[in-house]
Amino acid sequence: MERFALAHSENQDWAQAVDDCLGQLGQLPEHASLGFVYFTDKHAAHSGDIIRKIKEATPVKDWVGTIGMAVCCSSKEFYDQSAIVLLVTDLPQEHYRLLHSPEKLPKFDSDEGVKVAIVHGDPRNGQLPNIIHELPDRIGNGYLAGGLTSSDTFHYQIANDLHEGALTGVIFDRTISIATGMTQGCSPIGESHTITECEGNIAIAIDGRPALDVMKEEIGEVLARDLNRIGGYIFAGFPVAGSDTGDYMVRNLVGIDPDSGALAIGEYLQNNSPIMFCKRDGASAIHDLQRMLDKLNKRAKGNIKGGLYFSCLGRGQHMFGEINKEMELIAETLGDVPLAGFYANGEIAGDQLYGYTGVLVLFL
Q1: How far apart are CA 78 and CA 95, in angstroms?
Q2: Do 44 and 83 contact (CB within 8 A), yes or no?
Q3: What residues have CB less than 8 Å from 29, skipping those under 6 apart?
Q4: Which of 140, 279, 322, 348 has the highest CB neighbour number within 10 Å of its CB?
Q5: Do residues 237 and 277 make contact, with C-beta atoms less than 8 angstroms apart?
Q6: Strands 4-9 and 339-344
């Protein structure tokens, strides 16, 4: 059985924080192969130093990870502070490959079965949605899970070395048993509609009517009378084509033109594509998180070795009302599982880039 070892530190000094983590990991076996490292942007200026130190001090050959404005581990969330989280495993090296660049994909001995890729991306790259959409097919029956770096300072992704600008991570072959799940942070209001006129990110007409009129009907009379109240509460949702679980991408409403009835949305729009409206709701988010956890726990049958969690910066304490609540809910269902992750600037599941979601990866 593969081992997963977890360590974390809140020390403000990066070197001492790494030493704290190394002390918690203890004497790692020589065949320890892969490590995941996430640290807050309070440590970002020392990214290179952190990676060099953990590589020199451990037998772990490969490291992947990134920076987050917040990071997390089993039952704990770290916001607006210095923190480092490490998750180390001894999964056989022949069953995974590091992804250093989407332009140069690693080779596997066999192309059979689903390959799960844990990936981290640079949010400043405007081509990332297209890269994410195309990569699963290019990998060959691939499935992506991960998130975009979130930082006020540096935006590094880690695949042994520091990278910027694209997508890096690790790809597992079919022999590594992995279960994934995604939970939404919003809930739909009403039914799906159709964009019938748009330009760029501006929805001019929905169902042949002014877009604003359709939205007002969906959100109800009270909110429609005071649109200043919908910021951070009402969003646009775009159903994912082919999804059999009702998945949808959430995008911000970035502007309203009451004269023309147009809506500006944080997404490039296309005519005749579906759209719906969603509300950000803590109670609904808890319910959907529990749904995902119950489903994965049933699939795992108590055999969870370790895990990774990628949540949105808009979730965590902002959505669940208190710090650690989201991670505690996960622990209550899954138990004391070694789990690491970060709060992202966009979450990746399948071939899509989401927002306000949580993406959970379990090694079984």
Answers
A1: 32
A2: no
A3: 3, 59, 90
A4: 348
A5: yes
A6: unpaired
Q: What is the pLDDT of residue 223?
A: 92
The CA-CA-CA angle for residues 119, 125, 129, to 5°, reads 60
Kindly report the CATH class assigned to 186-280: mainly beta
Distance between CA atoms of residues 204 and 196, nearest Å: 8
Q: At which residue do the structure tokens 């004391």 appear?
A: 336
Token pair of 329 as six digits: 């809910």
35 burial via Cβ count (<10 Å: 0-12, 13-18, 19+)? buried
Report the DSSP pairing between strands 178-184 and 357-363.
Answer: antiparallel
Contacts of 10 (CB under 8 A, 6+ apart): 17, 78, 81, 82, 83
Per-residue pLDDT reduced to its tens digit, 167-205: 999 999 999 999 999 998 888 888 999 999 999 999 999
328 contact partners, CB below 8 Å, separation of at least 6: 75
Where do the CATH 2.40.30 domains begin and end in the chain? 186-280
d(Cα 162, Cα 51) in Å, to the nearest integer?
A: 8
Two tokens, residue 177: 């048993």
The predicted-structure confidence for 252-270, as pLDDT tens digits, reads as follows: 999 999 999 999 998 899 9
